[in-house]
Every structure is written in structure tokens, then in C-alpha cells.
Amino acid sequence: MRALRYYGPYDVRLEHNIPEPECLPHQIKIKPSWCGICGSDLHAYMSPTSVPFKDTPHPVTGETWPVTLGHEFSGDVVEVGSQAVGSLRVGDRVTVQPTLCCDRCVPCRDGSVNLCTSFGVIGLMGGGGGLSDFVTVDSRFAFKLPDNVPSDLGALVEPFAVAWHAATQADIAAHDDVVIMGAGPIGLATLKCVKVRQPRSIIVVEISPERKRLAQLFGATVILDPREDDVVLRCKELCDGVGPKIAIDCAGVASSIQSACRAIRPGGRVVNVALWEDAVPFHFNDLLHGEKTITSSMSCNQQDFENVIKAMGEGLISVENMITRKTDMTRVVEDGFEALLREKEKQVKILVDVRRP
Predict the structure, then answer these.
(1) CA of 59: how far to CAs of 104, 119, 127, 181, 249, in Å?
(2) Tens digit of pLDDT for each residue in 130-145?
(3) Which end of the chain is more exposed for a tag (fewer CB within 10 A), N or C?
(4) Angle at Cα 175 formed by Cα 169 and Cα 181, nearest 5°?
């Protein structure tokens, strides 16, 4: 079968002779239809920080380079294992929570598989991936799509589940003020998931003109550009003189997390969603004064997937306007990875039509 394989930084190859995976009793086998390219894929493409290293196998999959890519995907069920859980049947359209977990550690036993001490992601750390003709996944991590959610949009459930988890971690109440640092794909998805919770205001901090336009389209109350605005001062002016209660950092740059900590009101909360490449200077007095707290949001869980699918099916979240390009398996590098690097200003979510020849 075909599979897009990661051999190392800037070395991604479409191969045609990869063995088709066997469906184990607890699994289902899927023929992927659409797969998104996200920031984690781009991190891996440029630098191997989120994939197993060449000579170090991942503890769950046991795989080293090369690994098949693709963790934001939808597809059709083609086989159901004899011990699969749930009610999925051959022919069902599904989306996949790409979690790899050990099922033995304390977080796993507590039901927090996203906090597994050996946590991994299908399509980055082994176990196959959505950028292939077939993939097998644990049946508990496959979710049937409603009839009114097409498969291309079903591939966006995963990034929205990550955003939904962040909004849940933030514990947003109606009429709270929220600031979101960064309006990339996860920042924009977070904006949509926060808006469902009906806060009083949503401030978005972003420098890209196209992403600022999208943030406004998606419902941001105010958009600040840190090159032109004093973010901390403006946040306080806009929110009763004390700042928003919640800050969600989706930018992953030192200035954003620093501004987030300084902008929130006393007793406020910062939630970090961003994946960081390097350590950043951080002054804890920014939190100490005012008893502010900082927490993080790691990936997502089954409940997040179910909530996003329900919200999409009921029309509470629209995702189609996140898609800025579609390509096929033969052009993933040129029209996917390289486009995201070249056209960062205008690309948000690029989808791959896995079935197009």
C-alpha cells in the first residue's frame, strides 16, 4: 500500500510497497479519506522533537524511523476486530483520536490517557498513520461521524478536540473575559471552542493580517497586534481595569507567555497549549503578585472528541472556513509542509485527499 513516511528532518517520502496492517482483535481497520497537516507535523518535518529518534524506539509502538505520518484524519471502517468495543460497523465513516498509551501507568489507570507517561501519537510516533491507504487503530479511539458532517471536515475533529480540551482546562464561565495569544490553527480553533462557552469578551493577540482577519470573522471581540499595541495595558483597559480572567497561550513564543501572565487579573489563570522548542525566561513574580495560576493543556481525551463531534453536528462549531488548501498524496511536501513554511501568513489548515491517485 501507499504511505507517506518520515525518514528524518526534511526527508519525507511517498512509498508504494508498505505492507497493509493486520487488524488485531481490539482494533478496527480504516481506509483514510482525508488527513490534515498540523503544527506538530511541521515541527517534526523541520526538527525531530516529537517523533521517535532514528535509533530510539517509541516505548509504546517500538518503532524507529521511518514512521508513517498523519494524525488528523477521517476514513471508512473496512474491518472490525473480534474484540472491538462499541458499535462501529464496516462502512461507517469515522474520525480518529490518535492516542498511543501504555494502559499500565497511573494516569492511564485513572482514565487520563492523554497524560500517559509513555504518551504518543499515531502518525508521528509509529502505529501507522492517516497518510496511508490503510491504518488500524484501537477501537475505543474511533468515533462515528454524524451524517451531516462530511469526511473532509471530520479530519478537523482532532485539532478542535485539542482546542476543546484547552477551553475545558481554562474553566471558562459565561461572562468571563478571555485573551487568546496567537491565531494559528489551534488558536483559531480555540477561539471557536471558547465562543461556545459565551464569555463576555474574547481578545485575540496576533500579528498576521490574514489570521487577524480570520479571528475577527470567527468572533473575536478585539484583536491586538503586539507590534502596535501594548498588550498588557490594552487587556487591562478592555477588562474593567484589571485584565481578563483567562489567558490561553497558543503562540509558543516567550513574549506571549510573559504578556499572558502579566495581562490577567488577580486570581486569573493562564493555560498553555503551545508546543515549545526551547526554554523561555520566566519570572514567577508575574504570577505570585495576584495569586495567579498557570496550567497546561495536553492533547485531548475521548470526551473532548465526543463533545466536538456533537457540537459540529448541531452546528455550534463551523470548521469549513479553517481549510485554506487541499492537495493529494503526491504533493504533500510541496503543497503541504513547504506551503506552510512558505505561506505561513495565509495558510491555516491544509487537507490531504488521501484517496486521490
Answers:
(1) 12, 9, 12, 33, 29
(2) 999 999 999 999 999 9
(3) C
(4) 50
d(CA 87, CA 80): 10
User: Measured between alpha carbons, how far is 145 from 344 in angstroms, rounded to an integer?
Assistant: 30
Q: How far, in Å, CA of 98 to CA of 204, rounded?
A: 29
And the C-alpha cell for 70?
498523519
Which residue, among 132, 140, 145, has the nearest Cα to 98 in the 3D structure? 140
Give the closest residue to 304 by CA, choosing from 332, 278, 273: 273
Dmax of the chain from CA atoms? 62
Q: Is 167 helix (H, G, I), strand (E, B) or coil?
A: helix
pLDDT in tens, 327-338: 999 999 999 999
Cα atoms found within 13 Å of the Cα of residue 258, Cβ hemisphere only = 10
| Structure-model confidence comparison of residues 98 and 50, the more confident one | 98
Q: Could you tell me where the beta strands, DSSP code E, fall in 255-303?
A: 269-272, 293-296
Q: Assign 206 to helix, strand or coil.
A: coil
* pTM exceeds 0.85: yes
Asked if 60 contacts 120 with a C-beta cutoff of 8 angstroms, the reply is yes
d(CA 95, CA 98): 9
Are the CB atoms for 172 and 246 separated by under 8 Å?
A: yes
The DSSP output letter for 193 is: H
Looking at the predicted structure, is the pLDDT value of residue 51 above 70?
A: no
> C-alpha cell of 320?
469549513
In whole angstroms, how far apart are CA 216 and each of 9, 105, 302?
Answer: 35, 43, 30
Give 298-301's long-range contacts (Cβ < 8 A, gap of 24+). Answer: 298/114, 298/115, 298/119, 298/165, 299/99, 299/114, 299/119, 299/121, 299/162, 299/165, 300/97, 300/114, 300/158, 300/161, 300/162, 300/164, 300/165, 301/97, 301/111, 301/112, 301/113, 301/114, 301/165
Q: How far is residue 198's CA from residue 164's CA, in Å, rounded to a whole number?
A: 14
Please compute Rg for the chain using Cα positions: 20
- Contact criterion met (CB below 8 Å) for 120 and 61: yes
Indicate the DSSP class of residue 179: E
